[in-house]
Amino acid sequence: MFEGFEGGRLPAAFMSAGTSSFTEFLSSVSPEMLPGHKLPPGGGTEHLTPDATTIVALTFPGGVLVAGDRRATQGNVIANRDMEKVFRTDEFSAVAIAGSAGIGIELARLYQVELEHYEKMEGRSLSLEGKANKLSQMVRGNLGMAMQGFVVVPLLVGYDENTELGRVFSYDAVGGRYEEHRYHSIGSGSVFAKGSIKKLYREDLDQTGATKVALESLYDAADDDSATGGPDLHRQIFPLVDVITEDGHRRLSTEEVARLATEVVEGRAVNPDGPTVSLD
Question: Which CATH superfamily groups domain 49-269?
Answer without folding.
Answer: Aminohydrolase, N-terminal nucleophile (Ntn) domain (3.60.20.10)
